[in-house]
Each structure stands twice: as structure tokens, then as C-alpha cells.
Amino acid sequence: MKHNQFAVIGLGRFGSSLALTLAKQGCHVLGVDDNEEIVNDMANKLTHAVMANATDEEALRAIGVRNFDVIVVAIGTDIEASIFATILLKELGAKYVVAKALSELHGRVLSKIGADKVVYPERDMGTRVANQLVSPNLLDIIELSKDYSVAELSVPPRLSGYTIKDLDPRKKYGCSIVAINKKSGVVIAPQATDLINEGDIMVIIGTNDQIESFEKEVLD
After folding, report:
1. Quick one: CA dihedral 181, 184, 185, 187, positive or negative?
2. Residue 147 maps to which CATH number?
3. How far apart are CA 199 and CA 154, in angstroms?
4. What is the pLDDT of residues 76-88, one digit of tens each?
5. Less CB within 10 Å around the terminal CB: N or C of the chain?
6. Rounded to 5 degrees, what angle do the CA atoms 187, 189, 194 make?
């Protein structure tokens, strides 16, 4: 089921970026912050923006937390406020709460008090940038679990005109090309005879070791 109703609590750098991106994708977004200047700035960019204290139960009740598909607690550096807001949202019947964590310990606490999903934007961005610096062909990587990931790899010039069968990543390395992003559009579940060209982006799923082996032995 596609989510369309979002509330983002905390409109700092992460929260405002998230809220604006959701709004640009056509979602209904309520922004909440205790800073009047920030709320005024976001008022014309989101569906609604209100000034409220996220640790005030009555303030959260007033915004109707049950009406949103997802509520994101994106509070910046105030760990105590982040924890209290998450507790109150769950007690008030919020359907799905995503909470931003500043550390592993903070994340564990958020999970224990009921957050449905915990995100680590600073840590994850640092990991992505490091991977991209080490591996120029690696555009992005998303961890599905401790061992499995989905990676986006760009096709180097020397492989232009090859087919999926020529690369045969499943047989040789155990990973699979599940999509190819071309200028003409995205090819989902490509066939063995499909061609790749310079500038295409291959979406590959497999274990981290399988993807690393494929990248080093085929793309480097």
C-alpha cells in the first residue's frame, strides 16, 4: 500500500529535506517544529506547517497523529525530546513511526520504546560516500540486511555492447542484475540477450561479497 499522508516532526536539515522531497513527490506533508521562523519558512512549501512542542502530549493530540500513514521523528540533537516524542506518538495511536537516531545506543532505545523503523542518516550517508570514493563504479548501495545489499553500478566504456549473458553474474558470482536503468527507461528483470551500454546503471542484488567480487573482477 502506498503511503500518502506524512507528518515530519523536527524541520532541521534532515527533516526539512525529507519533508520537501515527500511534498515534491505529491504527498500530503505536515511539518512540525518549535521554531516559528522555520515553520513560517516551510508554510508555503508543505501542505501544512505548524509550530508545536513534540514533547507536549496535547500538542501532538491536536495535530491528529492517527490521521497520518507515517510520522517521522526527525528531531536533531535533543535525544531526550526524540525519545519522549516517539513514546507519546505510539501511545496516541500513530500507525507507523520512523525515528532518526544519532547513535547506535539512541537507536536501540528508540526501537525498545516502539519506533517501527529507526534510521541513521549521518551514518548511512557517510557509508555511501566512503563506498563511492573507494569504488568509482559504485553509485549507491542499500543494505537489506547484514549480509545482503542492492547496489547501483555504472557500466564502464569497455563493457558497452555486452549482453547480460556475457557477464553472467549469477553463475559466476552468485549475484543478479534485477534492472538496468537506461536513458530510454528502466528495464526490469532483463533477459540474457539484453545489451548494456556505457552510461547504463545496473541494479544488482546479492551478498556484499558477491557484489564486491563482481565489481572488482568485471568492472575494474
Report:
1. negative
2. 3.30.70.1450
3. 6
4. 788 999 999 999 9
5. N
6. 60
